[in-house]
Predict the structure.
Amino acid sequence: MTTKYLLAISGNDIFSGGGLYADLSTYSANGIHGFVAVTCLTAMTENGFEVFGTDQTVFGHQLNSLKNVPFSGIKLGLLPNVAVAELALDFVKAHKDIPIVLDPVLVCKESHDVEVSALRDELLKFFPYATIITPNLVEAELLAQRPIKTLEDMKAVAKHLHDLGATNVVIKGGNRFSQEVALDVFYDGVDYTVLEYPILETNNVGAGCTFASSIASQLVNGQPVKEAVRLSKDFVYEAIRHSDQYGVKQHYEKD
């Protein structure tokens, strides 16, 4: 069997729950060899959870080192600033014939000091090259610049993001509308599919990264987009359900 190579352009989560750790673990679980171009480091400081973008020159060298690897797909996660995003976009343009999954992490849940407006404009440039984008509700609101209060709003925003150039959109709704059911909406430009899963009590982080990485893995393994989304929801749900519930929340709450 030919080895498949999947690139994660993503950040280093100091608590190892999300980012490149979730990406590589998911690739491995799907029988794929993973590569990483690291976009940032993170750490807890006196100011809370902070993101430190990789030096632009260093990040460029990382991508240049990988230019001849025969990747079967690319998954993009946290792009901390415009400079890093521009380099990532150039790399994506050079690989536009393979599956591209964009997880547009505009706002870290722990910090809101990202250059949101400038990054939004930059992320929109990825849309024509992305096979699918996977924003959560906050990110979808920021990208579309309109609020989401209901399931119908989710559908309308998914269509708006499609109109902005995204071929396929899945908005991760979580439990905003219900404490019993997590709702996600998938839109392919024609049909809406609502995915419902029971809420799981957990402190785990990295579900969004794992979801996007699983979609990328499924696409590389030959699944159509809608089926890749469904299989990835199953994968994430089961991963959380069988986790040890360690979670990193306790680290944030110390001191």
